[in-house]
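Incident review: delayed structure delivery

Summary: a single-chain prediction request sat in the queue longer than the usual turnaround. Root cause was a stuck worker, restarted by the on-call engineer. No data loss occurred. The affected request and its eventual output are reproduced below so the record is complete for anyone auditing the incident later.

Affected input:
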Amino acid sequence: MTFAPVMWTVWCALVVVMAALWVYRSSLTKDEEDQIFLDDSFEHERSAQAAIVARVSKVEPLLRAAEWCVAGMTVIVVGYYVRDILIHLNVIGS
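Output delivered after worker restart:
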């Protein structure tokens, strides 16, 4: 098997993982409120918002790692095709 199909498969898998994490994080944050609860009667709202923030903070490092992996694989894909172009133009040797 050549390198290109494996490279594209890895890139696509990483993009799918990143997209799934992004969608999951978006579904968590859709119920998040941008307000401060100062009264004690809103303790249930405060605890619900704290639970949302806790779940989002667990997903954020995974999403950030997936984004960096996709960026790294994108550099590899672009580098592969730039090298291929340079070889076909006889700028560098194979």
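Verification: DSSP finds two helices and no strands in the chain.
Action items: add queue-age alerting; document worker restart procedure.
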